[in-house]
């Protein structure tokens, strides 16, 4: 780094530190003593929808342990009791749910079947609906004080997993019907009470003394929303924050390695190849592209070794995938390449993707292709990508949606009528395998079927997985038991605390 560059970076870092000082002000000794066991968090994105649980803001409420769902998911995506103690499928379309008793909402109301039906009805009738309910039609009814039924229009073997979505959090009845959306302030049921939200700047939570489960170890949580990555890293370095979301790759080497934790994400950087038009409709050309890709070079140079080389579409955030994966067999041999032109496209909104495109272009050129690159903002390129106007498209794609199950992603991207089928892939055998997997209940058999679908897709070379991304989480030396969750649903729970000094 040049001297000028060094001082410019230093100035930016110092500016970020001063920026954070206003967010985490401990200049008052008395206030500092009171706040000594409070957890200070610097988060990436501010609320977009007033922290309503019917939006993506729901994941913030979940990560702060203030709003709770009927069920949670374990590491392999199996449903576990939370506000619901048990559930039973009575018929292919009717489920019965038994609730936990003695749960008090933060405003003093008690959890019962009527409160749950009220919350789920609000989600079902919202416009737009929570993402987890796309294409889902159901009806809820109380069957007793702590028992309710859910009837679906079509059989839904993933209904328990669906109920784990933070967008289906159960709030007190007083949170709904105000005419101003759903208000989560003082209306959750978790170990922390959301007491105050300062627009898109900060949020304050306090320990809930009447929590039904293990009481929170910390007295409260102080959240600041800090979109600037340099500022978030500076907050960790200066001791202004105890937990920091999404530290940029470029900032991680500047921090104490013991304070930096990499968490595999269910997100795969994939090269989609057009199977319907252009030169990539030839399977041998697609095989040649697969053979030309040097994944290690991209991981080392673009992601600074903070990513995992992909062996398939589903990565280490799904720990069962590698155990059940078998590689495709009898693959097409690569074609000889001698100057064939390929159009390689991606978008600029994710800063690493244009750089990935540069390395891919170099690799393909070395293999004999003539490469034309197209890079635009996502909003300006999505329609062309979905219409199949490019030979190849680089996409960072979430492989697990809100149910914790990857089948929805596989269907969306690779079924004949998939809504996000950039590869334009349409093979009846893959569609049949997708439909077969969809009716299998959650568990080992369903996971085996999902991996068979992955194997079939990989054999087509319609999608070439390159790497699996990680999120970098920062934790100060004061914090104990912060949660490192690949699904980004959990961050702080009752056991997360600040160690005594």
From TrEMBL:
Domain Solute-binding protein family: 79-419
Keyword Signal among record annotations: yes
Signal peptide: 1-21
Annotated keywords: Signal
Keyword tRNA processing: no
SUPFAM superfamilies in the cross-refs: Periplasmic binding protein-like II
Name this protein carries in UniProt: ABC transporter substrate-binding protein
Organism: Candidatus Pantoea multigeneris
Organism phylogeny: Bacteria, Pseudomonadati, Pseudomonadota, Gammaproteobacteria, Enterobacterales
């Amino acid at each position: 780094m040049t001297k000028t560059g060094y001082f410019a970076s230093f100035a930016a870092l110092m500016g970020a530190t001063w920026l954070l000082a206003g967010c985490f002000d401990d200049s008052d000794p008395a206030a500092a003593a009171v706040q000594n066991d409070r957890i200070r968090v610097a988060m990436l994105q501010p609320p977009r929808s007033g922290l309503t649980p019917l939006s993506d803001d729901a994941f913030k409420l979940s990560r702060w342990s203030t709003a709770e769902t009927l069920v949670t998911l374990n590491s392999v995506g199996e449903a576990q009791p939370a506000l619901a103690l048990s559930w039973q499928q009575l018929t292919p379309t009717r489920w019965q749910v038994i609730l936990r008793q003695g749960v008090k909402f933060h405003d003093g109301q008690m959890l019962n079947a009527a409160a749950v039906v009220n919350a789920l009805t609000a989600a079902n009738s919202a416009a737009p609906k929570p993402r987890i309910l796309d294409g889902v039609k159901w009806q809820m009814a109380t069957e007793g004080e702590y028992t309710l039924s859910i009837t679906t229009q079509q059989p839904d073997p993933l209904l328990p997993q669906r109920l784990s979505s933070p967008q289906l959090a159960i709030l007190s009845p007083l949170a709904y019907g105000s005419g101003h959306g759903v208000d989560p302030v003082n209306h959750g049921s978790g170990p922390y009470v959301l007491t105050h939200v300062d627009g898109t700047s900060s949020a304050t939570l306090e320990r809930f003394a009447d929590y039904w489960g293990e009481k929170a170890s910390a007295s409260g949580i102080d959240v600041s929303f800090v979109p600037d990555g340099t500022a978030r890293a500076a907050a960790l370095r200066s001791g202004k924050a105890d937990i920091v979301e999404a530290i940029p790759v470029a900032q991680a080497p500047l921090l104490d390695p013991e304070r930096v934790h990499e968490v595999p994400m269910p997100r795969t950087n994939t090269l989609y190849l057009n199977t319907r038009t252009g030169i990539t409709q030839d399977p041998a050309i697609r095989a040649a592209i697969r053979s030309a890709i040097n994944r290690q070079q991209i991981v080392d140079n673009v992601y600074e070794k903070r990513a995992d080389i992909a062996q398939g579409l589903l990565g280490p955030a799904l720990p069962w995938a590698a155990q059940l994966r078998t590689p495709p067999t009898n693959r097409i041999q690569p074609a000889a390449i001698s100057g064939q032109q390929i159009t390689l496209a991606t978008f600029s909104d994710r800063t690493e993707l244009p750089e990935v495109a540069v390395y891919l272009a170099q690799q393909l050129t070395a293999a004999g292709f003539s490469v034309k690159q197209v890079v635009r903002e996502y909003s300006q390129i999505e329609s062309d990508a979905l219409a199949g106007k490019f030979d190849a498209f680089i996409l960072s794609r979430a492989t697990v949606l809100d149910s914790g199950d990857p089948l929805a992603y596989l269907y969306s991207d690779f079924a004949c009528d998939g809504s996000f089928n950039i590869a334009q892939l349409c093979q009846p055998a893959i569609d049949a395998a997708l439909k077969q997997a969809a009716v299998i209940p959650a568990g080992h058999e369903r996971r085996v079927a999902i991996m068979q679908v992955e194997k079939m897709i990989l054999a087509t070379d319609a999608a070439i997985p390159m790497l699996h991304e990680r999120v970098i989480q920062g934790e100060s030396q004061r914090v104990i038991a912060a949660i490192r969750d690949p699904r980004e649903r959990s961050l702080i729970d009752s056991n997360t605390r600040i160690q005594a000094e």
